[in-house]
User: Fold these one by one.
Assistant:
Number 1:
Amino acid sequence: MNHNITKAVIPAAGLGTRFLPATKAIPKEMLPVVDRPAIQYVVEEAAGAGLSDVLMVTGRSKTPLENHFDRVAELEDVLESRGKTKVLQAVQAATDLADIHYVRQGDPKGLGHAILRAQQHVGQETFAALLGDDIIDDGADLLLEMIRIHESTGASVIAVQEVPEDMVSSYGIVQPGGELEDTRWRALWANDLIEKPAKEDAPSNLAAIGRYVLRPEVFEVLERTQPGAGGEIQLTDALIELAKDPEQYGGVVAVVYDGRRFDTGNKLEYLKANIELALRHEEIGSDFEEWLRDTFSS
């Protein structure tokens, strides 16, 4: 992990309306996936890629996020006194992942606005942005490859994934350009991006999936970006400008990730994440698989 990028920004100010009433009093990012909250997987991914400085952009009712990544001395003392070493280590692991900071988004003006709120913390450094809804297999490796591509090309880099044609209207879609060579995953220049296009207007089925490595110039672009789809400041609109002016901004490269991604902001994908990750869990995986087979084989 010999790279100079150390900062990650995680927007986490959404209301989680798709999970109401469960998210009435609990942030959607704190909903558990097997034995830890969804947001912890994302922070672990950032830390695994060497991003030791994490800024979460939060909103009202997000205090449980801060509590989760904070130390709880009383709980740790109880666990230690009772000899629950393994549980104690799991509790402490969340605290030790990274140096985590917080800033409030304030007005809910969209993803682009949330990223813009990180400007003072990030300064003039290239940084990674990770959306808290997505859990990605090999996520740290994907980020490391995106950072490597940034360092070799000077471009901002986004992760994309092929989606069915009837789902393109739910994503920011890339218009692909020339391909790069010698990359772990297929990578290509993004000539343009379209936010949630109709199926007949989509230039491809390559959809942005919530992992970005962004040059600091994105902030100056976001500052003048007008509200777009949904009346919000869209990050996609800023990426369009970066892509169309490679001489000034370095352009945008899209890495086509072909692994497993769980959109935990979607009920069905959230349930799939719990089942698949439970099957891989070293403590309960084999017993859970046996139960599934016994329960659904007949």
Number 2:
Amino acid sequence: MQSLKTFSLWLIVALTLSTTAGCSSWVYRINIPQGNFLEQSDVEKLRVNMTREQVIYVLGRPIAEDAFDNNTWRYVYSFNKGRKNEQHKSLVIKFENEKLVSISGDYDQPENFNTPLEQ
């Protein structure tokens, strides 16, 4: 008789836990933006041969700087909106001799990127 009560108790506990586990989708989740939010209009201001200081002035400091490659900067942005709706964007900037040489990633390269700024 004692083992039947113990079994019943464990069965109730297991059923309670399994039914409450499904309730986690009802919990409100805050939308959390992380990283560098960039717009295409910001990227349009980039030009070849810009200095690091000029790039920082236009885009701000990158969140992720490569510790092993000082010539590559990564601007990464993610926005979690709920459980399944996620947005990720990145921009990779490369320097040679302290000058901007290329950009790549989820943004379009500016039409006049290859035209240096007036010095």
